[in-house]
Amino acid sequence: MYQKTDITPTPALIDKIEQQIGRAPRGIQAISATDSLGTPLVVRMHSIVDKKPFPTLYWMTSELLKKEISHIEARGEIKALEERLIEDPEFLAQYHASHQDYIDQRWHYMSPEEQVFAEQAGFVKLLKEKGVGGIANWDTVRCLHTQYAHHLCGYNVVGQWMDETFAIADLIP
């Protein structure tokens, strides 16, 4: 079972995230989803990191989820999803709504200072047009990890499909 959260990362949580991802994390704004034990599943990133745009708002840290979703990708499910986007206009509309939710959340979580910096640096177009995980073409699926990370923190039809099809959420302690 997972919980949506908005936790400022403590040094202990930063250490845990470093263990999960194998390096010191940069640009973390908050822990956005945890399992029932309080272990981070997804972190929310700053949209401006080192004075550059960082289009991935939600970053999956869970080793369990990364492994399981990698198996799903290896089975060719991204191609199958992209075919469904072509054939199913309702699913495509929901997918576009998922990208818009991601963009809206990205802008919402930017501080006023980050928004001003983005405007002055010419990053607004990028930050308001790139969807889930920074994807430019909203009719394609690049990475199921970013889709599922967003699903745990917002509205994402691909993440919903993954839960319906593969019961991913049931794997979370």
UniProtKB/TrEMBL annotation:
- Superkingdom of origin organism: Bacteria
Q: What is this protein called?
A: DUF501 domain-containing protein
* Organism expressing this protein natively: Oceanospirillum linum
